[in-house]
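Is it possible to get an amino acid sequence alongside its tokenized fold?
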Amino acid sequence: MSIYDYVVKDNKGADVSLADYKGKVLLIVNTATGCGFTPQYDGLQDLYEKYQAQGFEILDFPCNQFAGQAPGSDEEIASFCTGRFGITFKQFAKICVNGKNADPLYVYLKSQKGGALSSRIKWNFTKFLVDREGNVVERFAPTVTPQDMDAKIKELL
């Protein structure tokens, strides 16, 4: 399997093939609107504006598995993110990232860059960086800020 074999739902319920992102550098992140890391949306949007024209995309997957910090519908989450943080990158439907109901994309991501925690995502705002060939090249902990990832993203572009 390749990352491009996965199909996910966007925040309006439509199927999106990750094959649509072939040739792009991707940052895939599980997010929450009520988390202490939620202000990272500002930094993510800054990265997106800085590098989008060079082939960089952020794929945002809200997840309510960590202390219920992503309540609300997909529409409410999108409204919060665009209204409060001006998000213009792609947001997807709320998913599970751990457990028996984990989205297949996240099962794959964890299998590619798991390290000691390969079987689970620790918390909101865990980030996976994917190169233009679809290789998962790095996994970043929630405490790693978007600014901390800038050089690595630039290197892949």
